[in-house]
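Encode chain A's predicted structure.
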Amino acid sequence: MKSFDIVVALDQRNGVGLNGALPWSLSPDMQYFKQITTRTEDPSKINAVIMGRKTWESIPEKFRPLSRRMNVVLTRNKDFVLPEEVLRAESLEAAFQELSKQDLSKKVEKVFVIGGASVYGQALETEACQTIYLTRILSDFKCDTFFPQFENNFKEVESSDLEQHGDLTYCFTVFQNKTLF
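Encoded structure for chain A:
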């Protein structure tokens, strides 16, 4: 399996969602997410974002598929309709098999897992997960979906100063898999 990174925003209790949506509105986080997932070293390449079906459905329709990225949606429902340019895979492993095919492997520079909770859980179980780009929101929100515990296997390597947007305080933090040290 090719190495990949995770991009996630969490509240203080590792909450990531409520009723299939983000429980907060934080435009600097959206900008950070876009910057991380679209930036490539080779301008002729793009990055891939892998997400579960519910995460796909939580993205406002006008923003789907996420531009300037290869979108991969995980679903076992063969009847689930996706735009032609969006890849479908039944599992995280199947997504990586698709992305490693000759034509796609030449186009894709980096791979990011962007949710939801069960996909994050699968991703964290593999050593191929190298970096977590985490936006920590210093508030508690009502959430029904949570990011798995990860601190035992990852080490914080970078953190921004605390920032404020409206009534939300947050910071951007980067964790790396301890196997890299």
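The chain has one domain: 4-180.
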